[in-house]
Design goal:
Length: 278
């Protein structure tokens, strides 16, 4: 399950936790989230971090990279920074009891993008001043549930899926070399899956002082589910498998995702956050 974090110590967590958020919209949607992270079968350290704060409807998955535990530092610091920035500035969105109009949606997108940019600068700065951590970075997949919408922010190759009915739709774009090659027609999706360059990231939080952040806004519907996950999970999944694995819901579903990735190899850290909208 995902639980709320202490307001003055918003550390990302790696154990299962649960969250419940009443979204104040006309339909009185209820959002519950469940998260689980596992080191996998091949790694010694877990460089993934995830966060759930039901008080502001924020859910984040981060997959850190860098030697000498720098990946753990990068993902934790990035999640902390995003959490702090969004929590501080939520008042910019106005009355939470009113559905977001176009102006407030633009503000929400800027809020998510600005928080990820702040995390980028923070991680980059830490890498510059701390010996042995130069070049550390992290992916970020963030989802902010506000009234009648969800705002997503994306950097790197962690992913967010929308599960609606019996279909799963990948909402985010992987910022990887092989994805770029597929888009350019240089290789096929089948070749991308076995490419020796499939883990080369083209965007990360912390690699430079600035990063381009992908954001989008989607209207919430009762029955929707959203899966945030690191590549240690989605690397073992086909899109068409996701609804069935998520089907039981709750802690059982996130445990099933982690177990599946471990059963199929567990070469990387595995993190899943499942957000359920009722």
């Amino acid at each position: 399950m995902c639980a709320s974090l202490a307001p003055h110590s918003p550390r990302p967590v790696r154990e299962a936790q649960a969250a419940r958020l009443v979204v104040p919209s006309s339909s009185q949607l209820v959002v519950r989230a469940y998260g689980l992270s596992d080191v996998g079968r091949r790694r010694k350290n877990n460089e993934d971090s995830f966060l759930c704060d039901e008080s502001i409807g924020l859910f984040v998955v981060a997959d850190g990279m860098g030697g000498h535990a720098a990946g753990e530092v990068a993902s934790a610091e990035a999640v902390d920074t995003i959490h702090g920035m969004i929590k501080r500035d939520m008042a910019m969105l106005g009355d939470p009891n009113e559905p977001l109009d176009e102006q407030r949606i633009r503000v929400a997108r800027r809020l998510v993008e600005g928080a990820i940019q702040a995390a980028t600068y923070m991680v980059y700065a830490l890498g510059e001043v701390e010996q042995g951590r130069s070049g550390m970075g992290t992916t970020i997949s963030a989802a902010l549930f506000v009234s009648n919408v969800v705002v997503t922010g994306q950097v790197g190759d962690s992913r967010i899926y929308q599960i609606r009915g019996h279909q799963a739709l990948q909402l985010t774009e992987d910022h990887t070399l092989v994805h770029w090659q597929v888009k350019q027609g240089l290789i096929t999706p089948e070749e991308a899956r076995v490419s020796p360059h499939r883990n080369v990231i083209t965007r990360s939080v912390g690699g430079r002082e600035y990063v381009e952040v992908d954001t989008q806004v989607l209207e919430l519907k009762s029955g929707d589910r959203y899966l945030l996950c690191s590549d240690g999970l989605h690397g073992y999944l086909q899109d068409e498998e996701i609804p069935a694995v998520a089907g039981p819901g709750g802690e059982q579903a996130v445990a099933a995702f982690v177990e599946l990735a471990n059963r199929r190899g567990g070469h990387d850290n595995i993190t899943a956050v499942l957000v359920e909208v009722d």
